[in-house]
Structures are given as C-alpha cells and as structure tokens.
Amino acid sequence: NKLMLKFRLLDSNSDFPSVNRDLIESTAIKAAKLAGEVILSGYGSINLQNDIISKIGSRDIVTNVDKASQTIIYDTINEVFPDHDFLGEEDVDPGIEASINAISNKVNSSNLWIVDPIDGTTNFAHAIPLSGVIIAYAENGVTLFGLIYDPFRDELFTAWKNNGAYLNNNKISCCLTNNLRDSVICSGSPPNIKSLDACLRGMLTLSPKVRTVRLLGSAAIMLSWVACGRITAYYEADLNVWDLAAGALIIEEAGGIVTDVHRNKFTLTTRNLVASNKHIY
C-alpha cells in the first residue's frame, strides 16, 4: 500500500498543487484521524436537551463536539500551512446567504482548505453511527484533493484530481448498475423547507422506478458510498461547499458524474447536486 501511494503521488498525469502533495495529504489525514478520535470520544454522550445548539430551528444543529473537531482540524492544518485560507462550517453564520457569501469570498484563494468537522451532526447527536469528517484542498476555485473519513468504520476515502479514488489506499470505482430498477438512490432531508420539498418530490418520482430510496443523514457517507459502489446515486438540494467539495472530487475520480440539477459541471459554488455512476446518470 505504501508503494501504491508513492506511485500515486508521482503520477505525471496529475494536477500538481503549488505546495508539496505529500505534505497536503499527510496533514489532511492526520487532521481527519484526530478529529475522528474527538468524534468517537464524544459519541453517545450528547444530552439531547442540554448539549444541542440550534442554528436555525431544530432541523439545523451543532454540538460542542463539532466545534472541538473543527478546532483540532484547524490547528493541525495551521501548524503546517499557516498562510493558507481555511473555510470551516462552524465559522460561518447560519443560513443560505451566509454560506454563499462565505465561499464567494474565498473561492479564488490560491490555497484553501474546506472543512466540515462532523457531517451528519443530527445522526451523531442521536448516536446513529453515520457521519464523517470532510476535508478538501482547493487552489483558484478547483478542488485538487478530497478526503472523507468515517471514524465509525475507520474508512478513509481520498482522491487527487486526475489520479483516481481510494478507500484505505485501495482503488475504488462507482458501481456498474446500468438501469434504474436495480439502483439504490440516496437523498437528504435539508433544513430549508423549500429544499426539503424538492428532495421529497424527487423521491416520489424515483421511488416506483428504483430498487429503493434511502436517506442516510450524511452527505459524507452518501458521497463516499457512491464512489465505492455501495449505492448507485445521490441527489440533494441546497448543500454547502464543505458538504460537497471533497466528495464530488472523489466520485469523479472513481469514474462517476457530479453536476447540478441542470447538468452543469460541479464547481465550488454548486449548491444542488446529482451524483451517480455514468450508466444511470
């Protein structure tokens, strides 16, 4: 696996970042694993009456573990790359407009880390082991490296642009399902009611035509599971850049397609997502 990693890092067909690739990847992995330890240590300890902070209503929440996870990620990255920009979910005010402004202000950064310290906070708070750490590294509006870490299964999904996608250093690819009737489709339950309505309408349309539709409560899990072939596709309205940047790259590098609902190619400002293998897209 170490030899495989070395060859991946030296692949001459890759898009090389402006700083050392080995250092970006090793720093991201260290940060994700440390955050995973924070998540596991706090798992099952959340008092649902006293330990939850509502951002905008009861459907969008944060816990002190989210904040502790982001702090350790930031500190780990900042120690190695003190001059890089950092965009973490817990630094952004609640609401769609604040999220749009946050990425708009940094999208053209020459060195930008994009982080969701716990994607799937509601699952985590309710002791449902479906959440993950998301870390992406971008330059000038392009994601070059993506990482999703599931601490409950100790599964580390990574991808470099133009260099394939990997799960614990083993190459992965999207599934080969080529028809809707055999497909497992995932969607979400976003906090915004209009966005929720869009997801539900999609479910009503798709459900009779597919094997099943699932709502797993974490973009990190659903994106990474599309990439490794466990599910066929995932769509959701009104997601943020910290939800999507890493997973979109991982799916593309696993041979999948990621666009918005109008078939426009994914960018860091995309907020609605369709991600699947190439056969049912």
UniProtKB/TrEMBL annotation:
Cofactor: Mg(2+)
TM stretches of this protein: none
Gene3D superfamilies, per the entry: 3.40.190.80, Fructose-1,6-Bisphosphatase, subunit A, domain 1
Pathway the protein contributes to: Polyol metabolism; myo-inositol biosynthesis; myo-inositol from D-glucose 6-phosphate: step 2/2
Chain sites annotated for binding Mg(2+): 89, 116, 118-119, 243
Cross-referenced InterPro entries: IMPase (IPR033942), Inositol_monoP_metal-BS (IPR020583), Inositol_monophosphatase-like (IPR000760), Inositol_monophosphatase_CS (IPR020550)
One function term, GO molecular function aspect: inositol monophosphate 1-phosphatase activity
The protein, known as: Inositol-1-monophosphatase
Gene source species: Chromulina nebulosa
